[in-house]
Amino acid sequence: SECRWDGQFLLNCSFTRISTIPEDLSQIAVTADLSYNNIKTFVCSDGRNEEWMLKHLNLSNNLISELTLTTCINLPILETLNLNGNAIHTLTMDMPTPAHGSKKYSTVDRLLPALKVLSVERNNLNRVPRGLGLLQSLQTVHMSSNAIQQIDPKDFQNCSQLKDIDLRNNKITKIHPDAFRELNKLQVVVDLRENALTIPLPQILVSLNFFQLEVYLSKSAW
């Protein structure tokens, strides 16, 4: 492929106009940049069940519309996943299951167990992806500039490590008062700027039990 490989850590495929993931990608790369291309489909597992050494994967500014993370059993140490600037309307997460008769993944009990940062900005999501709680190392989730309309009580359920949430520039009108109740480590930001919130501010904050928390709310309806 036209990708550039430094021979050790970085695989750079950005601006190469590829439409599919090259088959000759090195599995020892730590960082893979596949941004600014014409990729429409990304499937984590290639069927060979060989684990990749990737810690940082950049798929931003492509043409991906649907994505499932359930198949990502071959990315056990992935820490950051950048999906910004695609056309994602469906992001599916579920518990991975080993192939029939396979013992290699029989001990898998978590989805992307090392993932800390998930960024899905500038896409077409109309709801918070279900199953974020399966990403048990997740600390930061960025979902600004989508079409999310409300925050439900189970949207961030079991996200025990979550510290930073960015929901700027969506279409949020309602936030359930228990939506952030379980997020005991939330300490950086709940960014709700440029939404259409109509509920009273105290109703949100009464369920937040944090001493260090920034809540950005400018340019909301009220």
From TrEMBL:
Which InterPro entries does the protein's record reference?
Leu-rich_rpt, Leu-rich_rpt_typical-subtyp, LRR_dom_sf, LRR_TM_domain-containing
Superkingdom to which the source organism belongs: Eukaryota
The answer to whether keyword Repeat applies is yes
**Keywords, comma-separated and alphabetical:** Leucine-rich repeat, Repeat
Spell out the GO cellular component terms annotated for this protein, sorted alphabetically and separated by semicolons.
plasma membrane
Quote the protein name from its UniProt record.
LRC66 protein
Q: Which organism is it from?
A: Picathartes gymnocephalus
